[in-house]
Amino acid sequence: MRTCFLSLIFLLSLALSSYAQPTPQTSRPWTYWWWMGSAVNEADITKQLEQFSGAGLGGVHIIPIYGVHGYEKQFIPFLGERWLAVFAHTVREGNRLGLGVDLTTGTGWPFGGPNVTAGTAAKKWAIAEGKLTTALTKQQVKRAAPGGAGLVVDYFDKTAVRQYLTRFDSTLAHLPQKPRAVYNDSYEVYGANWTTKFADEFRKRRGYDLNSQLPAFLDSTGADAGIWVKQDFHQTLSDLLHDGFTATWTSWARSNGYKTRNQAHGSPGNLLDLYALADIPETESFGSSRFPIPGLRVDEYYDVERFGTPHPLAMKFASSAANLTGKPLVSSETTTWLANHFHVSLSQIKPQIDELFTAGINHIFYHGTNYSPASEAYPGWLFYASTHYGPTSHFWPHFPLLNQYIERCQRRLQRSHADNDVLVYFPIHDLWATPAKSAGGIHQLEVHHVERWLLLQPFGKLGEQLLQGGYSFDYVSDNLLSNLTVDRQGQLKSGSATYRVLLIPRTTYMPETTLAQLEKLAKQGVRIVFADQMPQQAAGFYQHQRRSLQVQQRGKVLRQLRSVSVSNHVFQTLDSLGVRPEKLAPAGLSFIRKKIGDTTQYFITNLGDQFREGWFPLSVVGVTTSYDPLTNQAMPVPGRKTQAGTYEVFLRVAPGQSCFVNVVKSTIPPVTAQTQTRKADEPVLPVVGPWQLQFRQGKPKVPTAYSLPKLVSWTTLSDSAPYFSGQAHYVTTINVPATADTSRAYTLDLGDVREVAEVRLNGQPIGTAWCIPFQVQIPANRLRHGSNQLEIDVTNLSANYMRLYDRQNPGWKKFYDINMVDIRYQPFDASKWEPMPSGLLGPIQLTIMP
Q: What does UniProt give as the signal peptide span (predicted)?
């Protein structure tokens, strides 16, 4: 069996050998790094970068923001001579340590500052003398750093954007040490819906004067003319944002040798087109998903109604744009407000990142880490809204374990490309036909509240059905359709991706130019499926009836083409066209399917409570192996042929777990093996104690030792233990009966751990459990008959200590602007918190590994 397994690994290594490996810099996670007041110095920069490198980070993203009270003399104005010097030092030290450096093209967010005048600032429409005219939004840069305050720039005016960027031409561009990439945060230019030349641009692009249709533009009854005019209004905003901001900023960055990272979400435009311009499209994971993983905690105070929850359908806009344009990296602002300050555990972080991986993200950016002087007292300088990943975090000692896991995953995800069968058209004109819900009467396509613009549309409903059915898919816009080519088999190709079917959700409005492109593709053999109906109308007001007649006529032509279907049973039609749904999703697993040459690679994660183990037919058959990025172990995957002649593999993925499964096409038949499942009557050995508990290093002081007849939270033990944050040492004896098979490997299931457990057996380290399920593997022959000493060191959260510290030292909250707030954006006050359960809670048991 071992020889056969080594042969499998050899075949896999051959399949991957011709593909470039990602560098450690990109495969490791990066972090946002806020510079408060830019009150930084070279010594502390070096120290923190060395800490980041030692913890396994790949780079930093610098965001200058507001300052700290009492440090005004250390404030460094943005882009001044001293600021440029410390930034250059940062890039030099990053190069020395193998860390990348990215930089926001501004301070705080959105773009703006002292060189933005009233003429180049963000604008909104107003009505004067019965006509649309221009007014200022007066929005200022939010969370601005010293030297960065001022009006927000007009994102719809390329002249204004270019003028804004000249500040960087005369400063940053002259440094020999430059950032890898410049960054634009999510679109948060509130109420902006106009620009000085909007009326002229509208006339040129849409063919009529908007003022001539002012009653329709202002209509709130849903009249047809009002819908058409508002579609034109949004299309013009989208065009101007694309040309005026995104293309201008991207062109400027590349001319100066920078890559671009762009968060297009929140924009009143087509996200796919905006993401597609970036070198690294970036989505955002804000808040906590409601995964039904047993034991996974969700902060009860997180305001879902206000902030929404992460959703993979929103994340796929960034990854779809990257796939269609051949961009190898897709990033994410990750775990913003995952839980309240000092409450986030590593076990809460991993499922959110696994969800991002299944949505096509492969370049994680933590949100985040604050620059803090080494001399600053605990907890140091902190950002008001984040998960704290810095050196004063309670999980910092075990942070490398999370980083290793992510690096192992991203190394594989970055060297592969998407293997999605379906390309789904995004009918944005149907969205623009619905009432707008954002300030200024516009549709802002945000990641927070996808239920407002995405999930209720036929496009969103179909997307959810595709996910649940196990279909692999990307999105495409009207503009990106023109980039598609067709191979000899009638498959669509773009960037690094190939698609078998183009799927059009139930759509009412479609530009006639888009239908013309669909007809062109269909005549080349592309299989196109329309859900329920052909589009009925053209988008927009100008000559609407004539253009709608063209839409209907083209629809009739399309219906006659052999490769086109109009289907009331979309999924049956997809299956008949060779689309490959994976049975993983209906079983309760999330996954992404990718390709590396002839190897098909799956990343699979269990974010629910439906699945444990089972047999599955995968969409490809070949030599199959699995890889566990948590333990860095590879294993052969058992396979069997069914009576029907199909081939199945056996997967075991407990709730909270994840793995890679690789299938290599080979002339060697798939290995067939029997699974070793634990029998229902096989004994399980409980570990019941008693326990000796001794507190070790921690704050505010070390409580007394205890003898515990059973496991309980240590916060129930004494007056001081409820405030303790640190590490406690548990010791007990396991008596293994003579009938137990100690030649087998065992799993030690620790049950509920608060929060990280380092395990030793008979004086030898076994492993560290930091995520759900809290388990470690005991190798064969490590247990012995009779007495075995089990030692477990448990580290808890810092929340309990902050209950005391915040009452005794409220002066640590000394930051400008918003200072510190809790997860509900109320003034931060930890003194009223209840103690968080801490330590080993169990139950603990040993089971024989299959």
A: 1-20
439 and 516, same domain (yes or no)? yes
Question: Phi and psi at residue 668, in whole multiples of 5°?
Answer: -75, 130
H helices present in 419-490, as ranges: 428-432, 458-469, 478-481
Residue 1, pLDDT above cutoff 50: no
Q: For the segment 315-335, what is each residue's pLDDT rounded down to a tens digit? A: 999 999 999 999 999 999 999
Cβ contacts of 380 within 8 Å, gap of 6 or more: 370, 372, 373, 390, 391, 392
Task: Please state whether beta strands 131-136 and 123-128 pair in parallel, antiparallel, or not at all (unpaired).
Answer: antiparallel
- Do β-strands 691-699 and 752-754 pair in parallel, antiparallel, or remain unpaired? unpaired
My answer on whether 380 and 525 are in the same domain is no
Q: Kindly give the interhelix angle for 458-469 and 312-325, rounded to the nearest 10 degrees.
A: 90
Does the pLDDT value for residue 572 go beyond 90?
yes
| Backbone dihedral angles phi then psi of residue 32, each to the nearest 5 degrees | -65, 140
Q: Is 496 in the same domain as 409?
A: no
Binning the chain into helix, strand and coil, the percentages to the nearest 5 are 30, 25, 45
Confirm if 232 and 544 have CB atoms less than 8 A apart.
Answer: no
3-state secondary structure of 546: helix
Query: Does one domain contain both 703 and 728?
Result: yes
Tokens of 554: 């083209």
Q: How far apart are CA 167 and CA 267, in angstroms?
A: 24
Distance from C-alpha of 383 to C-alpha of 365, rounded to nearest angstrom: 15
Task: For residue 305, count other CB atoms closer than 10 A to its CB.
Answer: 6
In total, how many domains does the chain have?
3
Regarding whether 394 and 287 lie in a shared domain, the answer is yes
CA-CA distance, 63 to 54, in Å (whole number)? 22
Over pLDDT 90: what percentage of the chain?
A: 92
CATH code for the domain of 754: 2.60.120.260
Domain extent, residue 543, equals: 422-576
